[in-house]
Structure formats: C-alpha cells, structure tokens
C-alpha cells in the first residue's frame, strides 16, 4: 500500500490535478466520440436527403404503379437508363436499384441483377417503413459486388417511393454515389467537433483547477496556521503544567515557611518582650516594694528598673510589629514603595541607601507591589546584617508591566551553600517571587551581593 501512502501524502490540488486530468481526458474522449458520431450521422443524413430529394424528383415520375408491376416494362427501364446515364446525376451515381418489399430487384443499371431476389436487410426494412436511410461506407451487401470492388467509401442511400394518396412505401430506390468531398467534410467536422470538445473540456478543467488550487492554498495555509497554533497551545499547556507544579511546590514550601516564621515570631516574643515583662513581674513582688520600711530612694530605684524593663519590652514589641505590618501600598506607585521601604531601613539602621528608580509602566497588581516591598525590605536587612550595609543600592525599573528590582551591596558576600534550606530570609523571598510567577536570582562573592527579582507583564488585579 505504498502507492496509497504516497497518494495521501500529496496535496489536494495535486490529487485533483492528476485524478481530474484523467477523468477529464476520459470524458473528453467519450463526449468527443459521441458528438463526432452524431455530427457524422447528421452530415451523412443531410447529404443523403438532398441527393434523395433530387433523385426522387427526377426518377419518381418515370415509374409506373409499383403495386401492380412485378418488373419494370421496357419503356420505363429505357427511360431510367437514359435519365441515370447522362448529366450530372449520371456522373455522380455509381449504381441504381429499385427494390420491391419482398427483396426483389425490379430495376438496376446492372442488368444481370434485375429480377434477382435477396434477403431483406435492416436498411431495406427501415426504408419500406418510410424512413430515409443514408450510409457512408464501403459496400458489404451481397448484391453490392461491383460497388465493393471499387474499394472506397460510397454514399449509400435508400429512399422510399411513396404513394401520393396513401403515403405508403411501395418501393425503395437504392443508389450509390461517389459523394466527392464528403470525406473531407466529415474529416473537417470531426476536427471541429474534437477541437470544440477539447476546448470546452480544457477550459472547464482549468477553471476548476484554478478554484481547487486556490482552495488548496487556503487549506494548506490554514493547516499550517492550525498546526502552528496546536504547537503553541501544546507548548503553553506544557508550560502551564510546569507552572502548576511549580506553584504547588511553592505553596507547600510557603506553608512550611509560614509555620517556621510563626515559630520564629513566637521565639522572638518569648526571648525578648516576654523575658522583660517576666523580670518586671518578679520585681513587682520584691520585698523592697512591699515593705513599708523601705527607704524612698530604694523604692524609686526599684520602680525605675521595672519601668525600664517594661519600656524595653514595648520597644521590642513595636519593632516586631513594624516588621509584620505593611503600610498602605495598594494605591502607591513603584517610586513611593521604594522610597518608603528605603527610608524606613535608613531610619532603623542609620545607614545610607542609593536609590535608582525608572518607572513609566501601567499600574501593577497589589500582590506584586507587596512582593516588591517585602523583597527590598528583606534584601536590605540581609545586606545590613551580613554585609555591614556597605554601599547599599536599590534599583527599580518598571516598563509596560515588566518589573526589574535589584538590591546590591559591597560587603564581603557569603557562601550560598552555607544557607540553610529553612532560612526564612532568602527562602521566603524566593518562594514569594516564585508563587507570583517571577524569577529570583542571587549573585554573591568577595565584591558584594546582588539580589534580583524580575516579573514579566501581567494583568492588573488584586
């Protein structure tokens, strides 16, 4: 079935051109043969009818009553001999016979044929039925030996002789004529008919081919476009599946990090404010405050220690809360967010941070704004804790929804391999960025550390 696979591999236009061409050629031959046959019959019949009318007008008046005569009398036969043997009619006619309905030859220019009886053939039968019969062929009837000996096609005509009052065929005139020029006429008619059929078939096939080729090009273009779209959709589906798996992993890690972060907050509250408050509580139960004999200056000193411990507890609680609570940034621009977090960091650490901001993009989603705020906050804290806050720089660029944020310092850097997987800072940043479909990158070494976050264009939303 290799031929079938090769055939199916061809384009629709190629298949139509081959199959349609073969069908058109076959149809052209069939129609050409039919049309040529009809035209030849029409030309022969018309030519025969014209000759028969002429012969009938000349010969019929010379014939006696054919219903009462078995053979022509000598006078009628002599008149026919003289009429048929001279003039234009004599030059055209090769032979002439007068038939009776039973197959008897009543008259012939070949005298030895007169009185002979032959089987009634189909041509004679049609003529006695009242139809004119004309043929252009080499004679093959038993009574046509002389005509057959000529070896060339002749016009054979059977013309019925009708009674004037009844219209009944009482005899049949059979004659052969040379029909000079008829062969050329038939050849010309064949050529014209074949040319007309070929021209019509060719035009029809070319018009259909043009339509099919145009449709085939459209189908091929649509097929390529569809294939490209399917490829793109398959790639998008694969990418979506990857993103879904990535989001699931990020969600799982975020849940684990949240638990770790909550434990860290609990530890900070327990080790810091809770210890100061517990110390103050113990001092409140001190005998120095309960005993009335305690000197005022000693009592005041003890109260000062209690107030100091409570003040330190409140300060640590405020510091913890300031790191947890976000300012109102839903309607803030990138510039406002960057400046706000940088100012808070400078005020807290008493360091300087260089800021580079380039913003001309559309409004960003709130989730992205929060991520930018937390990213800069955590990256600056890490730069301060691990890099000493040396030459800290924040660069933020937002163009047409593309966000690029970079925080760098010129500290000593660190070894990323030494960072624990459960570390809240870097791991929290990476998971937060991943969960929103962004990219996160850290470059560190002796020359400092660069932390980068990138978001591609995304729709505005909460």
Structure description:
By secondary structure, the chain is of the alpha+beta class. It has helices at 2-9, 12-59, 74-84, 87-92, 122-128, 145-149, 182-271, 273-284, 287-290, 296-324, 334-349, 366-387, 424-435; strands spanning 93-99, 105-108, 133-137, 154-162, 169-177, 353-359, 392-399, 402-409, 439-445, 448-455. Strands 2-1-5-4-3 form a five-stranded antiparallel beta sheet, sandwiched between helices. Strands 6-7-8-10-9 form a five-stranded mixed beta sheet, with helices on one face. The radius of gyration is 59 Å and the shape is rod-shaped.
Sequence of secondary-structure elements: HHHHEEHEHEEHHHHHEHEEHEE
Q: What form results from the Cα inertia axes?
A: rod-shaped
* Overall pLDDT score: 78
| Count of β-strands | 10
Percent strand: 15-25%
Distance between the ends: 61 Å
Kindly state the percentage of residues in helix.
Answer: 55-70%
Helical segment count: 13
| Computed CA radius of gyration, to the nearest angstrom | 59 Å
